[in-house]
Write a sequence for this structure.
């Protein structure tokens, strides 16, 4: 066996063994918290709100690039033209 395949096999075996031997984490009632308490509900709503913000920002980027690609396909010029670079001779 090559070194890379042996390394991959040993890493995979280690991950499987660690997952097989791991005990589930058990929190006490005080650490876990009441799932129906207002604090837990507000934390869940905060997580959902932040996920919604991330999705909206990514959707905005996607729409921007789609509009840009459609404008380029239709032949519209770039909104910011590229500068023309010229070779400047010394003394001119």
């Amino acid at each position: 066996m090559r070194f890379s395949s042996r390394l991959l096999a040993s890493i995979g075996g280690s991950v499987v063994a660690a997952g097989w031997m791991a005990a589930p984490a058990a929190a006490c009632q005080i650490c876990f918290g009441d799932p129906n308490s207002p604090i837990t509900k507000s934390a869940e709503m905060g997580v959902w709100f932040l996920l919604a913000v991330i999705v909206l920002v990514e959707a905005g980027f996607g729409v921007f690039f789609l509009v840009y690609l459609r404008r380029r396909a239709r032949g519209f010029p770039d909104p910011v033209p590229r500068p023309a670079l010229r070779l400047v001779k010394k003394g001119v």
The radius of gyration is 28 Å.
